[in-house]
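Hey, can you fold this one?
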Amino acid sequence: MLVLAGCKHKQSGDVPATTGVDYAAVAVPSFSADSAMAYVEAQLAFGNRIPGSKGWQQCAAWLEQTMGRWCDTVVVQDFHATLWDGSTVPGKNIIASLRPQAGKRVLLAAHWDSRSWADHDPDEANHRRPVPGANDGASGAAVLMEMARTMSQMPPSVGVDFIFFDVEDQGTPEWSEVYDQDTWCKGSQYWAQNRHIPFYTAVYGVLFDMVGAYNPRFTKEEVSRSFAPGLTEKMWRVAAALGYGSCFVNQDTDPILDDHYYVNRLAGIPTVDIVQNSIGTSFFPHWHTTTDDLQAVDPQSLSIVATVTMKTLYGDYPCEL
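Sure. Predicted structure:
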């Protein structure tokens, strides 16, 4: 996942920024930071979630089984992806749904694979070692899991699809002499062109990536602003209303190549990326290093992101039970 050179696409059908809603007073399910952190730890216990590895296979089965406890349906979308060097790896997009019969839907997504190479590690000897992927991968997946658990007990009046994209983080390593941006985000590229349900669409989507850093800092990056300006403004206003303005910073920043780019561009679903943007470093200090482990994740950051998202979602689509 890298910074894009530019983003000139514009999205029609964006969600307008809602006015007149007291988001602080909106009733939402109770998100457990400790539970979410336990899901981060569980993912890391499988080892590296590199596509095709034993840990990847075990984690995929666990995700499918666990999400099946809370959601009405779970679909595993198998595919194969060609990497930067021409090699091919298997992939599994996992899609779990609440209220699958509802026509109006919201998409919540994250990637669940971990990177094969720690090519940004300060120690060059580690560059071909795998990344643990605690914040970069497991944090977003854990937020999806805990949101699914708690939202299943108090479902909103809209269908919700939790999508775990695979093969997101296997893009061109730093030592390659040839770079291709489409070597990243293979799972979302595949899903956007081969959706799990024919003609599937959603009112909007939210992507979670690297959402567990200490002192989280999320900015309004350009792909989100370009494709989903109304939703971007809405979520940052909700965060401010909840007292999280220091985390959801009111700052426009450069476009990011992430799964939301392909969901926006190929599937036409206005989607916002909530992604860490630390000052003076690449995303966060442990990005694509061997130190992206449990110590890099703050459970309170996971809770902040989930709370802002659920306040936004339930503010528009309250529970009807």
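The chain has one domain: 23-316. Let me know if you want another pass with a different chain boundary.
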